[in-house]
């Protein structure tokens, strides 16, 4: 009968169980340690190229770590078993070896003592296996908690970057008005309210950042579509003019009685992001066309530019966080827009032809009850 495991030269499972039974028959006190190594999930040492080398490496490490063991065995797969003599200092020694990760690999382990924990071979093994299961589960829950904490920190980082990105929008509006005022001697008094509104908006965005944002929309109410579009065009005009562009607004079956239930500032944020992307994309003077259509029970907003267009292989990625083709920018703008539109029960899509331009299409549900609008 074969007593050794061919891949590790340690005892195999059957011979190890026989050794446990023999120790019990002799009336010896001992400790059974089961070790489960997390080495077959990409966490092995460099230079070890296959499973056999890895198992042999673990075998040598265990023999060096437990030179006084009564028995060492490959228990199953990447699990090993050690039979330790019960001596006064064995507890301190075993905990030092196992808890400090001095074996060089991450190991989950369990201990069962004879005769304190069991009075038979099978009961002792079952006790050790049960404890190993619970220890592995505890480690899994701990790792899951750490991952959740890491994910929360990632979200906080995304929020910080996203908020900085969004604060740039009102700053760009203010900068545009000031540049026009300086270069063309414009009196900014007619735009004083717009400027103050943008400053207020920055303050609100900062407040949301400090609160780490609230889930969903914070101010949903019926708002006139035309009012939103006129405001967006007015706010984008200075930047468009400074780049040599014009903005064209066309309405089809859309009038002041047409409402959408929305958070006004967030819808404005979406439109400004898309329009400003269009302004920056167009290297030659051109027109940004904004079209609003009523189709069945949906408002369809189309923003078209005559920029260089987006390659087809890049289109599936443009709404992904941090995806950007710009040298500056976080790549969060369109991702945030996509999420906001979805939160409003709508859809945001894009179509583009290289050399001709890009069209973004927003579809939102509508209502006609103006009496509910402030």
Automatic annotation (TrEMBL):
Q: Which organism is it from?
A: Paenibacillus darwinianus
| Stated name of the protein | histidine kinase
Q: Superkingdom of this entry's organism?
A: Bacteria
Keyword list, A-Z = ATP-binding, Kinase, Nucleotide-binding, Phosphoprotein, Transferase, Two-component regulatory system
What Pfam family does this protein match (any one)?
HATPase_c
Which EC class heads this enzyme's classification? transferase
A GO molecular-function term, please? Answer: phosphorelay sensor kinase activity
Q: Where is the GGDEF domain?
A: 28-150
The EC number(s) attached to this protein equal 2.7.13.3
Transmembrane ranges, per UniProt, are: none
What catalytic reaction does the record list? ATP + protein L-histidine = ADP + protein N-phospho-L-histidine
CDD domains noted in UniProt: HATPase, HisKA
According to the entry, every stretch annotated as the Histidine kinase domain falls at 162-368
Q: Does the keyword Transferase apply?
A: yes
SUPFAM superfamilies, per the entry? ATPase domain of HSP90 chaperone/DNA topoisomerase II/histidine kinase, Homodimeric domain of signal transducing histidine kinase, Nucleotide cyclase
């Amino acid at each position: 009968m074969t007593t050794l495991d061919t891949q590790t030269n340690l005892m195999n499972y059957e011979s190890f169980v026989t050794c446990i039974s023999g120790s019990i028959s002799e009336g010896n006190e001992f400790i059974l340690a089961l070790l489960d190594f997390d080495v077959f999930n990409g966490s092995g040492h460099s230079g070890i190229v296959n499973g056999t080398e890895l198992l042999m490496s673990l075998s040598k490490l265990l023999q060096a770590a437990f030179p006084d063991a009564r028995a060492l065995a490959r228990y199953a797969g990447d699990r090993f078993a050690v039979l330790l003599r019960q001596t006064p200092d064995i507890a301190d020694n075993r905990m030092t070896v196992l808890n400090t990760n001095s074996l060089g690999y991450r190991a989950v382990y369990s201990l069962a003592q004879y005769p304190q924990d069991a009075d038979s071979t099978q009961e002792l093994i079952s006790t050790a296996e049960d404890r190993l299961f619970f220890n592995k589960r505890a480690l899994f829950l701990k790792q899951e908690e750490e991952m959740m904490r890491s994910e929360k920190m990632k979200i906080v980082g995304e929020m910080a970057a996203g908020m900085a990105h969004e604060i740039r929008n009102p700053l760009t509006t203010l900068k545009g008005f000031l540049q026009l005022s300086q270069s063309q001697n414009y009196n900014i008094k007619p735009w004083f309210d717009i400027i103050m509104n943008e400053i207020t908006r920055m303050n609100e965005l900062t407040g949301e950042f400090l609160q780490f944002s609230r889930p969903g929309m914070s101010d949903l109410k019926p708002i006139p579509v035309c009012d939103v579009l006129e405001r967006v065009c007015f706010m984008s005009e200075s930047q468009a003019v400074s780049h040599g562009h014009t903005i064209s607004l066309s309405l089809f079956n859309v009038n002041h009685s047409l409402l959408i239930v929305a958070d006004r500032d967030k819808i404005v944020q979406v439109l400004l992001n898309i329009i400003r992307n269009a302004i920056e994309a167009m290297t030659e003077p051109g027109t940004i066309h904004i079209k609003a259509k009523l189709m069945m029970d949906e408002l369809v907003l189309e923003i078209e530019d005559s920029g260089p267009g987006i390659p087809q292989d890049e289109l599936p990625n443009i709404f992904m966080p941090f995806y950007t083709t710009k040298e500056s920018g976080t790549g969060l703008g369109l991702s945030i827009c996509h999420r906001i539109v979805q939160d409003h029960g709508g859809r945001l899509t894009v179509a583009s032809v290289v050399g001709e331009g890009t069209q973004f299409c927003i579809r939102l549900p509508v209502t006609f009850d103006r009496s509910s609008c402030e």
